[in-house]
Design goal:
Layout (H helix, E strand, L loop, with lengths): L1 H25 L4 H18 L24 E6 L4 E6 L5 E5 L5
Antiparallel strand pairs: 1-2, 2-3
Bound molecules: zinc ion.
Length: 103
């Protein structure tokens, strides 16, 4: 039972990585398809209860657009406050992350 669960998670993780890769590739040529790939990847994560981990900040949680600095997002670093601000150009959602913690 436990090993089956492990296998499901392993396969799910592989699929999520493939979907994220495809979403990256399609970002410029087909942004709608790219968003769809992100949506599917997030659905897989939710269903199988796996964490996106290092990938969780590469897309906009609101509209599923991959956040590429200067292309789909604006990045501002506030050194004094040690904060990184990321704004999604697609939907305007704003994110703030501390700079002292990478990822
Ligand atoms: Zn967005």
């Amino acid at each position: 039972m436990k090993s089956t669960e492990k296998n499901i998670k392993r396969i799910a993780r592989e699929r999520v990585e493939i979907l994220l890769k495809l979403a990256n590739e399609k970002l410029k040529t087909n942004p709608e398809l790219s968003k769809r790939y992100i949506q599917i990847a997030r659905e897989i994560c939710m269903r199988t209860n796996i964490r996106l981990g290092k990938y969780k900040r590469i897309f906009c949680k609101k509209c599923n657009t991959i956040l590429v600095p200067g292309y789909t997002s604006v990045v501002r670093i506030e050194r004094r406050k040690k904060i990184v601000k990321i704004i999604c150009k697609s939907c305007g959602e704003k994110y703030r992350y501390p700079t002292n913690k990478p990822q």
